[in-house]
Amino acid sequence: MTEIGDRWYSRPGIWFWIVIALGAALRFYLVVFTDGTQDVAIWERHARDVRDHGLIGYYHGDPSANHPPFISDVESWLFTASDTTGVPFRIFLRAPFAMLDAVTTFLLLLSLGVSQWRFLTAAVYWLNPLSIIFSAYHGNTDSAVAFFLLLCVWLLSKDKLLAAAIALGVSLWIKLPTVLAIPALFFFISNWRRRFLFLAVAAVAALATYVPALIQDPAIVWQNVFGYRAQILHTTAGVPAWGPRLLLFSIIAAPQNWPETFHAPILFLLANSWLIAVALAFFVVWLRRSSRTIPELCATIAGIYIIVLAVSDGFSFQYFAWSLPFWFFFRRWFFIPAIVLVSGYIYFLYASLCGNPWLFGTWDFNGHPYWPSLVIVFRNAAYLLICVAAVWFLSSTTAQAFRVRQ
């Protein structure tokens, strides 16, 4: 019989390199030939404003200017390069994150250690429609969150504490959602001195690129960047894209059909969903604070973002990218259907919004107030799965902690 180590999926045979080539070709096509979502146009406007008005002027002039100083400056330089070379800005915006996703795939492979499934898992991630779309098509920086978190975890696995802290700090130059994983990383480290050293180095690294802007105008940086909250996303006809409103008002019952006694608690939940999600995530991290293996840490990080996706009312499509590589450390009953359902939701929705199965067309979110039934089915199934996973993670973690205390 064939040994486990000799099976086709346990080694990088020709199938693996074909997958790598296909994933690279798809990313190249999307970066070069497609327009992306409305985020591309938004980023182009941001980059132009930073170039023309300076960073602080950009923050003052645009309430939606919520990106950290470093990435805002970088994108303004890329806009200038686009003007100089004639290469469309959409290519300059997306190409770095498509290439970064290749490194994320490699880090996922390394993080799986000697697992017989490591090459197959890396291949699935690389060819996953979600990782392809968010890194090479969508046109935003969210895929960097997963990269830096995975880099930080891998460095911690090699006992490179300072390098891991720097990686975490640098992640905040681009996007802030890595802060959600800080409690899990904090408790993974073995003693209090090393934990606070990790936080101190990460803070210094993070603030390095914020200091000039904070010196000029700390109030506007705090208001626009640190004070930003995710928005509720729905179509012009009120069709929710995701979140508790989807469960409460689209799946369970229409708003007018809820008994009056439920109005107050529902309004409380919706008004405080972000804080509730963060509190539940921290509660789970505290219960799992003794979990010290890399797979356990990765599963905890996945659970944090799954809880946020399930409970928080603020949402944008690319938020899935924050934790996508970490899904593979969750149970198989979750990550296999999650990839299928969420990929189906995102792909069919994006194809519908740009009117082309190859995503070759102009994104028109406002022009589609009602979505096709296929999109709705995938959306509802994907959200319900995320909710089930969040409930399971909370309940199983609580039950295990209770058993340990017994």
Task: Provide an overview of this structure.
With 406 residues, the chain is mainly α. It has one domain (9-405). The chain has helices at residues 14-33, 38-61, 69-85, 89-111, 118-127, 129-136, 143-157, 161-171, 182-188, 192-207, 211-216, 218-226, 244-252, 263-271, 273-287, 294-311, 332-354, 373-405. Helix 1 (14-33) runs antiparallel to helix 4 and helix 7 (143-157) runs antiparallel to helix 8. It is globular. It starts with 13 loop residues before the first helix and ends with a helix.
Key words describing this protein structure:
406 residues, 0% strand, mainly alpha, 18 helices
Spell out the blueprint of helices and strands.
Layout: H1 14-33, H2 38-61, H3 69-85, H4 89-111, H5 118-127, H6 129-136, H7 143-157, H8 161-171, H9 182-188, H10 192-207, H11 211-216, H12 218-226, H13 244-252, H14 263-271, H15 273-287, H16 294-311, H17 332-354, H18 373-405
Helix pairs in contact: 1-4, 1-5, 1-6, 2-3, 4-5, 4-6, 4-7, 7-8, 8-10, 15-16, 16-18, 17-18
Give the distance, in angstroms, between the N- and C-terminal Cα atoms: 45 Å
In percent, how helical is the residue content? Answer: 55-70%
| Total separate domains | 1
Structural class: mainly alpha
Overall spatial form = globular
Q: Return residue spans where pLDDT drops below 50 for at least 5 consecutive residues.
A: none
Beta-strand segment tally: 0
Q: Specify the biggest β-sheet.
A: none
Average pLDDT, all residues: 94
Contiguous helical run count: 18
Helix and strand run: HHHHHHHHHHHHHHHHHH
Q: What's the Cα radius of gyration?
A: 21 Å
In what range is the share of β-strand residues?
A: under 5%
